[in-house]
Amino acid sequence: DTAVSQTPKYLVTQMGNDKSIKCEQNLGHDTMYWYKQDSKKFLKIMFSYNNKELIINETVPNRFSPKSPDKAHLNLHINSLELGDSAVYFCASSQVGPAQQFFGPGTRLTVL
Amino acid sequence: SQKIEQNSEALNIQEGKTATLTCNYTNYSPAYLQWYRQDPGRGPVFLLLIRENEKEKRKERLKVTFDTTLKQSLFHITASQPADSATYLCALESDGGTSYGKLTFGQGTILTVHP
Asked: Fewest CB atoms within 10 A around its CB: which of B47, B61, B93, B113?
């Protein structure tokens, strides 16, 4: 059974388009995250939700909007895609408190 | 703001030797620190968590130390194997102890174990 799953795995699109990435976890965790890993492999947190409530919102352009319909799902919608948005986006989940994070397989976004 | 540095971008060692990876941080006192492994094309996988009041943690061939005075963590893999080849990421808790799980990651060290 996949613990944290993301769709799609690859996303190739044109500048200016709007796209969404979906994430689901079946671990029963209350907290979910979105990370961005750029071409230099730096992994940086973007957002975190705890029990459907936005907890962490790093300095991310307003074009990025997370949405958590329930505790098991955290989606990421990106408007007006730019070249600099090309990266691998990882979803993760964890229990509350000092706890290991479980990462999804990643979505490689390429903006042309 | 906190800064985290893993001292080697790449580390090459022979099979059977001990690999030692270093993680240094400044401008912060994290309540805990984690180490993750990342293979190409995959998401990071958790290895170990160590709290500020713990000096050392072990798990099979892995050992991590946490020196809050030096602001440094060392990650050791003993009796290394080619299968240990991967990128290793250090991550600091950076949410001020609010337990929201905010982590700041280092840039990673690419470990290659040669047969």
From this structure: B61
* Inter-chain Cβ pairs, chain A and chain B, closer than 8 A: 62
Q: Do B43 and A105 touch (CB under 8 A)?
A: yes
pLDDT, tens digit, 9 for 90 and up, residues B63-101: 999 999 999 999 999 999 999 999 999 999 877 666 677
Nearest Cβ partner for A97 among B45, B99, B102: B99
Tell me how close the Cα of A12 comes to any Cα of chain B, in angstroms: 16
Q: Which two tokens stand for residue B92?
A: 């600091």
B99 contacts on A by Cβ (under 8 Å): 96-98
Q: Nearest CA to A92 among A40, A58, A43?
A: A43
- pLDDT tens digits, residue range A41-98? 889 999 999 888 888 888 789 999 999 999 999 999 999 999 999 999 999 999 987 8
Q: Does B89 touch chain A (CB under 8 A)?
A: yes
Residue with tokens 């700041």: B104
Q: Which residue has the tokens 């400044």?
A: B26
pLDDT above 80 (res A1) = no
The answer on pLDDT for A2 being more than 80 is: no
Nearest to B92, CA basis, from B113, B64, B115? B64
| Helix and strand numbers, DSSP H then E, in chain A | 0, 11
Residues paired with B65 in a beta bridge: B56, B74
